[in-house]
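--- STAGE predict ---
source: upstream dedup step, 1 unique chain passed
mode: sequence only
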Amino acid sequence: MLTVTIASNDAASSAQLLAALQQTGLVKTVKQWMISSDKLPDAGDMSPDVVLLDLSRDPEHFFAFAAHVRRLRPTVKVVALSAVMPPSHQLLLEAMRSGVQDFLPKPINAEVLIQLLSGFSSEIDVRARPSVEKLIVIMGSKGGVGATTVAVNLGVQLTTFAKKRVVLLDFARPLGNVHLLLDLHPRFSVRDAVENMDRLDSHFFAGLLTTHKTKLEILGGITQPEEWQRIEVNSLERVVNVAQSTADVVLLDMGAQFSSEWSSILRMARMILIVAEANVPALWTLERRLLALKGFGIEPDRARIIINRWHRGDEDVLKSVQKDISRPIFACLPNDFRKASESINLGTPLMENHNNTLSNRYRQIAAQLAGIEENVPAKKVSFFSFPSKR
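--- STAGE serialize ---
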């Protein structure tokens, strides 16, 4: 992960660069430094890996800034950005003398920026992707298996029990309904994020979120199916990157529909939870979904299976499935139709009934995901097999 300083004297241009950087998913922190003629940073203020010089018509102070930073931190990478391209011979000469290593045109191209930062990341041997730590994708093996219910209730438990800041992205197609399960009325949606990519930084993104009383934050899903025709997956990847710059955990409800074009987002996830039921259609599509993920280059151990609406009589079937797919079931959620139906219809998460077996199971899974399973109330439950018989 890179630390970056933006040196500018234009607040609007600096804000656009901040948004572009946070959308790459390659930066840990970004500091904005306003260039002035009478102030240069001291060693305590300046320890970036990369400096972006947002050049104005008078570049003298920018180059003085760059030279000063290079003296403080000789290994820093300095990149100049200019609206006038190609730069003049004199400007190039002054830039080289101050330690500038590259020139990029403004407005900056997202792909060029990613390529540049990726190269710097490799050179200084830092980890390039935060997504491995924060993103968890939830998808259904088929429609109707309860993937959104799982996403919502895990999000609530991670927020209330594990005390994490959690953002839930509703990317389900053709329509998102996370908000219905929480009785929320989002003012903004995924569409607002992708349509404002030029200013989508962590501050703008926070303004798009709707917060539930449990403190779970959601980015509302699409409400008109035709809106997906104007949304590209690479834009959604940049939304995910910005979300990761703000939250401890990012949950992504993908619904049941996906294709190869979504593979870039799936490869970002540290875990993919596939929700299925113990019936022939759901298990048949589960096997094919696992094969598809393997074809996308997803490591098998990153895909975990959750069996929803589990009955004790399902054990023999699921043991056979585990043998066929050569992997264990990650967790089983017991079938409690009355509680689950009431929760969905009222828009009330299951956590509000602490004595319910189903809500306890969600709490245990959240603890596993958050790495705090030792604090879960003692019960005879295994995350990697079926609940023990009583």
